[in-house]
Design a protein that fits this description.
4-stranded antiparallel sheet
Length: 119
């Protein structure tokens, strides 16, 4: 199994920045891609950004140009740099990994970290 632990959430004013981190442990050899999702109250969980083991990235349209996802393969850690934060970015942010093993493919999730953008 892959275990994910997020850190870095908090309260920030509009226009501010935060960096989220997600450290993976366990069967990290099986990780094919990692990403960040978010869920605001009353809304469905949505993909924010994703990065493959080869470094290919994709972003939600709402965060393009403001958020940057990166990974340190040696540390099995993925980061989400969030700049120009807006109140609508307020949500619980979840780290996700897509894991591929010989007989199964599965997702792992972190416990979530709250990001609140407010003045």
């Amino acid at each position: 199994q892959v275990h994910l632990v997020e850190s870095g959430g908090g309260l920030v004013q509009p226009g501010g920045s935060l960096r989220l981190s997600c450290a993976a442990s366990g069967s990290t050899f099986s990780i094919n891609a990692m990403g960040w999702y978010r869920q605001a109250p009353g809304k469905q969980r949505e993909l924010v950004a994703r990065i493959t083991i080869g470094g290919t990235t994709n972003y939600a349209d709402s965060v393009k140009g403001r958020f940057t996802i990166s990974r340190d393969n040696a540390k099995n850690t993925v980061y989400l740099q969030m700049n120009g934060l807006k109140p609508e970015d307020t949500a619980v942010y979840y780290c996700n990994s897509e894991n591929v093993e010989v007989f199964r493919t599965y997702h792992s999730w972190g416990q979530g970290t709250q990001v609140t953008v407010s003045s």
